From TrEMBL:
It holds the Pfam family RDD. Keywords: Cell membrane, Membrane, Transmembrane, Transmembrane helix. It is a multi-pass membrane protein. Residues 8-132 form the RDD domain. It is found in: Cell membrane. This is RDD domain-containing protein. Its main location: membrane. InterPro entries: Pra-immunoreactive (IPR051791), RDD (IPR010432). GO terms for cellular component: plasma membrane.
Amino acid sequence: MPTRLRQAGIVSRGVAAVIDLTVVGFALGALYVGLILLRLMFNPSTFSFPTLNAVFSTAAMFAVAVFYLTGCWAVSGCTAGAAVMGLRVTGRRGGRVAPVIAVLRAAACVLFPVGLLWAAVDVRRRSLQDIVFGSRVVYVKP
């Protein structure tokens, strides 16, 4: 059990979250371009850019963000932002996060991102999502 790994602080985690938000934004942009190309391919004579409403955009953002975070945390424990900042999300015992916990934690992080701010006041640098799901965000030693 790697208890000597240092818990990540609010600044490192915040920067990683901004990087991850950028990755999700690029993924959504790519999906939108794909939708445009599909419409152009199947209906070139009456092509018009698709108009997306707020409900669809919000649902797509939620789905892409949860899928991205879940996949990264369940497979390696590192998102792109975490890799840049040298962080890893681990379970209670220091191993990978279980897939079910990864899905629930990802949904909680997307729905309640303000929970990250709790890491600034918690003595053990845990966000509210870490407390609820028993995860830890630690610095990875080289």
